[in-house]
Design goal:
The protein is mainly alpha-helical. It has a single domain, classed as Amino acid/polyamine transporter I, CATH 1.20.1740. 73% of the residues lie in helices and 0% in strands. It is globular, with a radius of gyration of 22 Å.
Length: 496
């Protein structure tokens, strides 16, 4: 696959490949395989952080049905992925959602999506870096008594993530792979300890009683649960750098969604089983937080596992920051290449084939947010993480719903030999489900931010403003340079 020349400029003369195997100005091709993509996606989701930090809140809000909610959410996202991956064969662009919406629903709405995507992914990254500083500072103080400012540790995280983002993308995949394996192993050891002690008594079938999904609190629970899958769509972001993307992107997407749905559901179910369903719900409503998971690890395996998991949740936050940083940088690169952001962002490092300028810009933004958090002395978890990630996750949910509709529109006149279920009914069902969840997220935004009233309104205002700016930019380009507008998102496509 090759990209078109820079929008609005004459084609540049051919240049020899750089050491990374990518011509100057293009991302390095053929470096990422299925396993690498899965690592990027699952590490971004941060399984340990979800099961320790988010699942207890979901249990407290929705009660015993939390495990089933993860399976239902996974099933909805599988429907989304059916059409999303079908379209990935025809649209390969580091600006994934932007390119999909542009091809399916028109370039004006595509540009709007592009600006929303940049804000969403760039907000999530510093939030997760703040969580790294929060967890790391707490652990250091608990173990040594030394007080290290969270922002200093977060700044270190930003710096290391930036360096890894600058280097070959395969190095990031290796780092994420190690972090992910350690996270998953620690959780599997905990679950094994619970099952070895309590046996089938830990597996209460009431959690999968469909009638529980009609009870109060379920709407809020789904808002928390669906956010745990955020980042799975990043498989398409790496399509330009993947080996055989027609196969690797769909395969990695389905593997990632399936793994996360089953792993979250099983982990939540067993954590509840460690205490007994009713007791677990009561404790989650009383205090929530990671102690529910950590106490289960200490009680059924040993203090060593609880201590290990306290360290690994720091590793989990770092891995998530790295994964989202790479995704955010590629959106900046894609929009810089299109001229929707400064064109310098569309330049690639000749040594590594990475989007070097975009990596620097994203790192600078991370440092700015962390620096502001430190200067204002705000809580890194309750403010920097929850506020930034709430807005980012909501933006991604909106883009997922739009992308599902775009898939339907793209295949509406020509299914290209694919089944009606995959490119018609699955996208429509996914779009409906995601739209409902997005509305629920708006009405339950306080669950994501931990705040209410004016703070939430102020957090929600920027996204419509950004969307309006994208619309104005698209209209201006269409009016002043129709040829350039027509070339937006153009890539070479694999034909049947």
């Amino acid at each position: 696959m090759s990209l078109t020349s820079s929008v609005g400029r004459a084609p540049a003369p051919a240049q020899p490949p750089d050491p990374a195997g990518a011509p100057a100005g293009r991302l390095a091709k053929g470096l990422i395989g299925t396993t690498d993509l899965v690592f990027f996606v699952v590490a971004a989701a941060a399984p340990l952080t979800v099961l320790a930090g988010i699942a207890p809140f979901a249990i407290g809000v929705g009660g015993a049905s939390a495990p089933a909610a993860y399976l239902v959410s996974g099933a909805l996202l599988v429907l989304f992925a059916a059409g999303f991956t079908a379209m990935s064969r025809y649209v390969r662009n580091a600006g994934a959602f932007y390119a999909y919406v542009a091809r399916g629903l028109g370039r004006t709405l595509g540009v709007v999506t592009a600006y929303v995507a940049v804000v969403s992914y760039n907000l999530i990254t510093p939030g997760v870096a703040a969580a790294f500083g929060y967890f790391a500072a707490g652990h250091i103080e608990q173990r040594t008594g030394a007080h290290v400012p969270w922002w200093l540790l977060s700044a270190g995280c930003v710096a290391v993530v930036g360096v890894l983002g600058w280097l070959k993308v395969t190095l990031s995949a290796k780092v994420l792979g190690v972090a992910l394996v350690l996270e998953v192993l620690s959780l599997l050891v905990m679950e094994g300890g619970v099952l070895a002690d309590r046996g089938t008594a830990a597996l209460d079938p009431v959690s999968f009683d469909p009638s529980l999904l009609t009870q109060g609190g379920v709407a809020g629970m789904f808002v928390l649960v669906i956010g745990a899958f955020t980042g799975f769509e990043a498989t398409a972001i790496y399509a330009e750098e993947a080996r055989d993307p027609a196969r690797t992107v769909p395969r990695a997407t389905f593997i990632a969604i399936g793994f996360l749905a089953v792993f979250y559901a099983l982990g939540t179910w067993i954590v509840m089983g460690a205490y007994g369903t009713d007791d677990a719900v009561a404790q989650a409503r009383a205090d929530g937080g990671p102690d529910l998971t950590f106490r289960a690890a200490e009680r059924f395996v040993g203090l060593w596992l609880s201590d290990t998991m306290h360290v690994l949740i720091i590793v989990s936050a770092f891995a998530s920051a790295l994964a989202f940083h790479n995704a955010a940088a590629r959106y900046l690169y894609a929009l810089g290449r299109e001229g929707l952001l400064p064109r310098g962002l569309g330049r690639v490092s000749p040594r590594t084939g990475s989007p070097g300028r975009a990596v620097l810009a994203q790192s600078a933004f991370n440092a700015l947010v962390i620096g502001l958090g430190g200067v204002l002395a705000v809580d890194p978890y309750l403010v920097v993480l929850l506020w930034s990630n709430s807005v980012g996750v909501l933006g991604i949910m909106v883009m997922q719903a739009l992308a599902a509709v775009a898939v339907f529109a793209f295949f509406r006149r020509d299914r290209r030999g694919l089944s009606a279920f995959r490119v018609v009914w699955a996208p429509l069902l996914a779009a409906a489900g995601l739209a409902v969840l997005t509305v629920l997220a708006l009405f339950n935004f306080d669950l994501l931010t931990g705040r209410s009233g004016l703070v939430n309104w102020l957090l929600l205002v920027p996204m419509p403003v950004v969307a309006a700016a994208g619309w104005l930019v698209a209209r201006r380009i269409r009016r002043t340079d129709p040829a350039r507008f027509a070339r937006l998102t153009e890539v070479d496509v694999e034909r049947d």
